[in-house]
Amino acid sequence: MSDEATAPPDAETAGSDGHGSRDQSPREANKEETPQRAEVSNFEIVDHWFTLAADRLEIPEDVRAVLSSSYREVQVQIPVSLKDGKTHVFSGYRVQHNGARGPYKGGIRFHPEVDLDEVRALASLMTWKTAIANVPYGGAKGGVNCNPNELERGEVEKVARSFMDKIEKVLGPTRDIPAPDVGTNAQTMAWLMDEYGKLHGHTPAIVTGKPIALEGSYGREAATGRGVVYMLEEAASRAKVKLNGARIVVQGYGNVGSWAARLAGELGCKLIAVSDASGAIRNDDGIDPDALHTFSSEGNPVPEYEEAEKISPDELLATECEVFIPAALGGLIHEANADDMNCKLIVEGANSPTTPAADMILAEKGVFVVPDVMANAGGVVASYFEWVQNLQHFRWTEEEVNERLGDIMRTAYSTVSDRSEQDDVPMRVAAYSIGIERVLEAARLRGYLTDERVPSNG
Ligand code: NAD
Q1: Which of 26, 39, 124, 362 has minimal Cβ neighbours within 10 Å of its Cβ?
Q2: Is there an atom of ligand 1 within 6 Å of 287 CB?
Q3: 247-251 vs 270-276, strand pairing mode
């Protein structure tokens, strides 16, 4: 564990390939290769956008070094005995990037490809995201390199509880509050809360994204997808898209993708192609997003849905549509496939779905992109609402949650959009600029930075 803000990417916990040292146990999950990933790592993607905005803001190198590195990086061993009778050693990570604006906040991912580089990138993204949405949090992220799809329910529970036991010292409702991400859900959060409670007493505000029966918030489960759709509504006219009848393609049909598709359907959008980790489908007459959600949440792979034809992931990306929503993993839109895309508007539900090289290609093609760092903030905003309710032990209605979520998302959109026009820069650069300014302002007011050279947002 390092308490220093300057730990380089290859320090201590990282392997010689620049990635975190991986679990060495001989389980199938280690053999999984995900195709069509990017030419750059998630960390390089986030660092690229940060650097571009920091250059424009003329942030001095020494101040930049504080902002671009993590405050604390924890790597832990998670030995769990599985059904084969053997003990398997997973690696768990919690990275706290910047806490100037409030307690650290960020999801926990269970996925075989999780490593320190990815978690570090996602933690940094959370710092800028919470600042852009203007909720009083810093940025963090966590993960375990296990494959929950290949584990039994009781085994996932063991991983979750063991992970909490190892990292609870750096967590707390006023220190660092985890939430769900890829491969984790409300049930995982319930186990994490329960494990924390064994040591500290009942503490619902230790995690967000909990089940409703355990002081979760109405509206939290749908919030990231709902936020994506609020952004879609805001961006449609700018991208010259008429929502009623607009054709939508969704990459990844988990929490974010399926909610975005279902809520976009309520606006009259037509879902024509969808993918998940196992493949993709297309039907130009429209795919019923609710029926597909029911089908996939019963554990069926999307390509087995019979009301559509199977296509390849590359064909999904090239499908002619008005709106493309990435809602899977990072780096899936990259230099080698961005030019094939055939849409007017991309609303990034996933984190870091687009590499910098792909982003340039899309800009040249005239595709309007609402970047991840604002587009998928709905989850953390609703998590903030859940935390507020937990601290007060008082529950809001779903209407209140959705209304307040809409207010925050629309304000974020208009603030970034105005800045983008004023500075004549893409939305992503405008968003990062606002995020960086807000974090700097907080750091200076707290006395972490006494440097008058840094720009002020106040
Ligand atoms: P999830 O685990 O519920 O769903 C992920 C989906 O992506 C699954 O359908 C999976 O099969 C699919 N997938 C994985 N690899 C794929 C590939 N190569 N091609 C196509 N599909 C693939 O996860 P989620 O919570 O919906 O998160 C999705 C994305 O949204 C992630 O990037 C996550 O970081 C981001 N995000 C999630 C939240 C949240 O509140 N859940 C908030 C902000 C951002």
Answers
A1: 26
A2: no
A3: parallel
CA of 458 to the centre of ligand 1 (A): 36
| Separation of CA 328 and ligand 1 centre (Å) | 4
Residue 379 Cα: closest atom of ligand 1: 40
**pLDDT, tens only, 422-444:** 999 999 999 999 999 999 999 99
Q: Are 159 and 151 in contact (CB under 8 A)?
A: yes
Tokens of 390: 């937990």
Q: Which strands form 139-144's sheet, in the order they lie side by side? A: 72-81, 87-98, 139-144, 104-110, 176-180
Q: Does the pLDDT value for residue 27 go beyond 70?
A: no
Q: Is 110 in the pocket of ligand 1 (CB under 6 A)?
A: no
> What average pLDDT does the structure give for the chain?
91
Length of the chain: 458
Residue 257 CA: nearest ligand 1 atom is 26
CB 432 within 8 A of CB 53: yes
Distance CA 359, CA 378 (A): 22
Q: Which residues are catalytic?
A: 141
Cβ neighbours, 10 Å, residue 174: 10
Nearest to 178 by CA among 210, 223, 222: 210
pTM for this prediction: 0.90
Q: What is the pLDDT of residues 203-217, one digit of tens each?
A: 999 999 999 999 999
Q: Is the pLDDT of residue 8 over 70?
A: no
**Is residue 409 within 8 Å of residue 377, measured between CB atoms?**
yes
- Distance CA(363)–CA(325), nearest Å, equals 16
Name the token pair of 293.
Answer: 């959600």
Q: Residue 9 and residue 69: Cα distance in Å, rounded? A: 9
- DSSP-derived secondary structure letter, 171: -
Q: What is d(CA 206, CA 220) in angstroms, rounded to the nearest whole number?
A: 15
Are 36 and 313 spatial neighbours (Cβ–Cβ below 8 Å)? yes
Give mean pLDDT, residues 47-61.
95
HSE value, Cβ hemisphere, 13 Å, CA-based, for 302: 28
- The answer to whether the CB of 371 is under 6 A from ligand 1 is no
CA distance 63 to 95: 20
Helix (H) or strand (E) holding 380: helix 378-392
